[in-house]
Amino acid sequence: MNNQTIESLIETAMQARKMAYVPYSNFAVGAALLDGKGDIHAGCNIENAAFTPGICAERTAVSVAVSKGVRNFTAIAVVGGAVNNQPAEDCFPCGVCRQVLMEFCPPSFQIIIAQSPQNYRIFTLSELLPHGFGPDNLSN
Ligand code: THU
CA triplet 72, 74, 80: central angle to 5 degrees? Predict the structure, then answer.
């Protein structure tokens, strides 16, 4: 992934974050998922008065892409923090999102944890979900 791709992913995640519906946590997250063709699928977190139905930005992005028939991904950028503020912390995907990424992404899948296009760190899925359980465990 070149610097320009990383920057576009982070900027797309920052734009998506502005759409976050977070009246309960006031913690807004945006995600931008890069597919194998170079297209980007964005998502934000969407909370709910009943709490449990709330969905994270990463899973929104996966749902958007899979609903368009896309299942092949190479990277995701995640930007999160207190709503209406510039991100001032690293926002790592929750355990459920790591598991959902495991369903569609290879161990080398890149997870960009960003506060801005100039301030980010990159991890692989296998670093954030070592020894995960995935589709390969059920193929027999
Ligand atoms: N959240 C995400 O959308 N992604 C993450 O990586 C961490 C947490 C959301 C869930 C909830 O709406 C809010 O942030 C606070 O947990």
Answer: 115
Residue 109 CB coordination number (10 Å): 21
Q: Return the structure tokens found at 43.
A: 């998502």
Q: List ligand 1's pocket residues with C-beta within 6 A.
A: 22, 25, 27, 29, 45, 47, 54, 56-58, 78, 80, 91, 93-94, 97
- Global pTM reads 0.97
Cα 98 to averaged position of ligand 1 atoms, centre (Å)? 12
User: What is the mean predicted confidence (pLDDT) over 77-94?
Assistant: 97
pLDDT for position 139: 75
* Token reading at 60: 């929104």
| Active-site residue identified among 11, 47, 58, 103 | 58
Please give the share of the chain, as a percent, with pLDDT higher than 90. 99
How many Cα neighbours within 13 Å face the side chain of 19? 16
pLDDT digits (tens, 9 = 90+) for 30-44: 999 999 999 999 999
Contact between residue 79 and residue 66 where contact means Cβ atoms under 8 Å apart: no
C-alpha 107: how far from chain center: 15
